[in-house]
Write a structure and sequence with these properties.
By secondary structure, the chain is an alpha+beta fold. It is built from 14 helices and 8 strands. The strands form 3 sheets. Strands 5-6-7-8 form a 4-stranded antiparallel β-sheet, with no helix packed on it. Strands 1-2 form a two-stranded antiparallel ribbon. Strand 3 and strand 4 form a beta hairpin. Helix 8 runs antiparallel to helix 9, helix 9 packs parallel to helix 13 and helix 11 runs antiparallel to helix 12. This is Outer membrane protein, adhesin transport system. Pfam families: OEP. Keywords: Cell outer membrane, Coiled coil, Membrane, Signal, Transmembrane, Transmembrane beta strand, Transport. It is found in: Cell outer membrane. Belongs to the outer membrane factor (OMF) (TC 1.B.17) family.
């Protein structure tokens, strides 16, 4: 009952305080009003009060009336300026602010409406309403002096006591791993040196640091999908038959085969220089005219001549020429093999690309059908509710995008078919419609070991050897040549006598040719060196292609598995979004359309990465020069 009476007495005080706050002229700020309100509340709870009238205490009703009168008087009269004491700043000691104040016994008696000296114990400032409630509900300290009510509106304030014995704040030692730069406002983190040894990245000191592959948990395809997909031997047989068809009708391959035959004939031409060279000459009858002595003998009759020259010594010119031509034959043969490998790669890549685009076309058709279904559904809804026409516009836009994606896939498939038509003609290749083939990348080390046998690299090496032999032949051409010559002429002299057979040794030596022979020799040597450098560069390039193809194959196949898992989840999301939009109204149509687009893009991403990985497998074998052997089902290292 006592608490109820106390609450009833405090109600007028709250009303008066609100009226004083609305007037805005009595107190300088909210803090003064709050202190006044606290004093009034303490006055009600304090034990003895200084007597002002005959009664022993001042009732709450009387105090409220007095407060209202003061407020009205203040509205008529100008406001009295209020002098505020300086507020002492607390000193932070050990993360807790402590403000030292004089003892309560030394405080003088403070009149009503004066700012009492308050002891601060907590650093954060509280809202005014919470402070007022704490002041009302907190019991009065027994040592507080009594308060006296003044009739005057003049406000007297008392300056706070000075701060004594303030403890010096403790110094915070920064961590060793956190340093603050003088030029930067943000802390710069410098990790402590690791105790583990760091591998040196200098050349020749350690292995090159490669980017580590992330450990991903990828769900593999179900066993039923793996069984339904075509096997590796079946796929290799399909591709090998297509490649053989392309090789039979390829004009490029026929051209390289003719070049091989021409190089072989060059060898026969060089070898023929070792045999005796037989020349036959013939002279017709000569007619005489004009002034001079005329020969009337039989020597003017038609005659035939035979000249047989056999090379005895040429210091290796003929043999070096034969070697050069033989190396040229090998280079042409390797070029023919390289052309076959290139055709096999073009056919294989085209078939893989065609399979990919056909699968994307099927997915695009399903996406178009789904968007068309949504457009048809929304058309019926808009007929009943015109306010949802914007949803129909959104669905129509996505439907047109789906048609564009389908048309793009069809265009790419037709481009691939045109390329295959140039290679295969009218031949049709039965490609498996499965989304997954049982193809796995070969061992990288095994492919790198086969790079030295690549036909392109072998061709460059053969050309280098041919150029070296040609240089040796040109060097020998500047040396003397010794030939054995046998000749016979059927012509008769003035007396009608016929010449006998003649034989002898012929020596020829070109001493001076203006430097052309030595220049030709140096040019051949430089060409040989250039061919060797080209072979080394080709070897490095082929190894880089093999490594890149292996990396692409493994990363794309792994990414395809990730897309398959993502496709499964996006399928659930699109179905849930549609149910939440159509049945519950918790999703917007834009969410449904976005989920459908994500599902389509994830399916396309899976097919694209998977078949690009298969294409990278074929590219790896082609870069190592083993594609034809692999397609012929020859055993390959795994």
């Amino acid at each position: 009952m006592k608490k109820i009476n106390t609450s009833l007495r405090l109600l007028p005080l709250l009303v008066g305080a609100l009226m004083a706050m609305e007037s805005g002229g009595l107190y300088a700020n909210d803090d003064d009003e709050l202190l006044m309100f606290v004093d009034l509340s303490k006055q009600q709870k304090s034990a003895p009060v200084a007597p002002v009238r005959t009664s022993n205490s001042v009732s709450a009703d009387a105090m409220a009336k007095m407060l209202v009168q003061q407020t009205q008087t203040q509205k008529r009269a100008p406001a009295v300026p209020v002098s505020k004491p300086p507020v002492a700043k607390p000193v932070v000691v050990a993360s807790k602010p402590v403000l030292s104040m004089p003892a309560p016994s030394t405080l003088p008696a403070t009149p009503l409406l004066a700012n009492p000296v308050v002891t601060v114990s907590t650093p954060p400032a509280k809202p005014l309403l919470e402070q007022a409630q704490e002041a009302i509900t907190t019991p009065q300290v027994e040592s507080a002096p009594p308060v006296k009510l003044l009739a005057s509106s003049t406000i007297e304030t008392q300056a706070p006591a000075p701060i004594r014995q303030a403890a010096e704040p403790s110094r915070v030692v920064p961590s060793e791993s956190l340093r603050i730069s003088a030029k930067s406002e943000l802390p710069v983190f410098r990790p402590a040196p690791s105790s583990e040894p760091v591998a040196s990245s200098l050349p020749g000191v350690g292995q090159p640091q490669l980017t580590p592959e992330p450990a991903l948990s990828v769900a593999k395809a179900p066993v039923t999908v793996q069984r339904a997909s075509p096997g590796e031997l079946e796929l290799r047989g399909i591709f090998y038959r297509a490649v053989m068809t392309a090789l039979e009708r390829s004009p490029q391959l026929r051209s390289t085969q003719l070049q091989v035959e021409a190089a072989k004939e060059d060898v026969s031409n060089a070898k023929g220089q070792r045999w005796p060279q037989v020349d036959v000459t013939s002279n017709s009858r000569r007619y005489e005219f004009g002034k001079g002595n005329r020969n009337a003998s039989d020597s003017n009759m038609p005659a035939f001549g035979v000249n047989v020259a056999t090379n005895l010594i040429d210091f290796g010119q003929t043999s070096n020429t034969i070697k050069s031509k033989e190396f040229s034959v090998k280079a042409a043969d390797f070029q023919n093999t390289a052309q076959a490998e290139d055709l096999a790669w073009q056919v294989s890549n085209g078939l893989v690309e065609l399979s990919k685009q056909r699968l994307i076309i099927e997915m695009s058709k399903q996406y178009v059908a789904r968007m068309q279904e949504l457009v048809k559904m929304l058309s019926g809804i808009v007929e009943a509710d015109q306010g949802r026409r914007s949803e129909l516009t959104q669905a129509t836009g996505r439907y047109l995008q789906a048609q564009s994606a389908l048309d793009n896939a069809v265009a790419k498939a037709r481009d691939t078919e045109i390329q295959l038509y140039r290679l295969l003609g009218e031949s049709q290749v039965p490609l498996p419609p499965s989304m997954q083939w049982q193809l796995q990348p070969a061992l990288l080390d095994a492919l790198l070991a086969q790079v030295d046998k690549h036909p392109t690299l072998a061709q460059a090496r053969a050309q280098s050897l041919a150029a070296s032999s040609e240089a040796d032949a040109l060097k020998s051409s500047s040396l003397p040549k010794i030939n054995w010559v046998v000749s016979k002429d059927t012509g008769k002299d003035y007396y009608g006598r016929e010449q006998a057979w003649q034989t002898g040794i012929n020596v020829s030596w070109g001493l001076f040719r203006g430097g052309s022979a030595s220049a030709a020799e140096r040019a051949a040597v430089q060409r040989a060196a250039a061919m060797r450098e080209q072979a080394d560069n080709q070897r490095d390039d082929l190894k880089q292609r093999v490594r890149a193809a292996d990396q692409d194959a493994r990363s794309m196949l792994q990414r395809a598995d990730l897309y398959r898992n993502l496709t499964r989840e996006s399928d659930r999301i699109r179905l849930d979004f549609f149910d939440q939009w159509y049945h519950l109204g918790k999703r917007t149509l834009l969410d449904v359309l976005s989920a459908e687009s994500d599902y389509y893009n994830n399916r396309v991403g899976e097919v694209t990465n998977r078949f690009d990985g298969y294409s990278a497998i074929f590219r790896g074998y082609a870069s190592a020069g083993q594609l034809m052997n692999w397609l012929k089902n020859n055993p390959q290292p795994r």
